[in-house]
Amino acid sequence: MTRHRAMTLLKLAAATAYASSMSSWASASTFTVVERATTDAVSVHAGAAADSVGDILTFSNDVFDAADQQRVGSDQGYCVRVIVRKSFECHWTLILSTGQISVDGPFFDDKDSVLAVTGGTGAFSGARGDMRLHARDQKASAFDFVYTLK
User: Coil, strand, or helix at residue 97?
Assistant: First the structure.
């Protein structure tokens, strides 16, 4: 076998392995997890008021399957208050056994939010798309995270 043919076969094998690793999310491009917001806390108050521009909210919560029955992973991140009583700008990572997905974008106090999927690791390496966030109750104690990966 010539060196050129061997390199071509090696590249083809690598491309096939990469495509296989991507298929776990590419074939099922939309999935939902439920976050139970048990640790959300404003850890830094930037102003005198309880809700001020610059406040930092941090969290590390368990996430469950779409039926909110079985724990499937966790998330962790932070949000900075940008408009009082309206919105935060957030960054967080969903951590699953098969990899991680990072998101960035606005979290609105009184309506659903859409955040950008900015990347991932493991089975989600190279992930792009969006994550729709919906509060499951008025107390904001649980959220649906609907990931659409492209």
Answer: coil
Please write the tens of the pLDDT for every residue from 78-93: 999 999 999 999 999 9
Distance CA 30, CA 32 (A): 7
- Does residue 12 sit in helix, strand or coil? helix
* H/E run at residue 20: helix 3-26
Any idea what the Cα angle at residue 134 is, between residues 132 and 138, rounded to 5°?
165
Q: Which of 37, 33, 149 is nearest to 95 (CA)?
A: 33
Residue 98 near residue 116 (C-beta atoms within 8 A): no
User: How many C-beta neighbours within 10 Å does residue 72 have?
Assistant: 18
How far apart are alpha carbons 3 and 95 in whole angstroms?
Answer: 41
Query: Which helix or strand (DSSP H or E) is residue 25 part of?
Result: helix 3-26
- Supply the pTM of this predicted model: 0.79
The CA distance from 30 to 121, in Å, is 17
Mark out the alpha helices in 43-145 (DSSP H runs). none
Q: Dihedral sign, CA of 35, 37, 38, 39?
A: positive
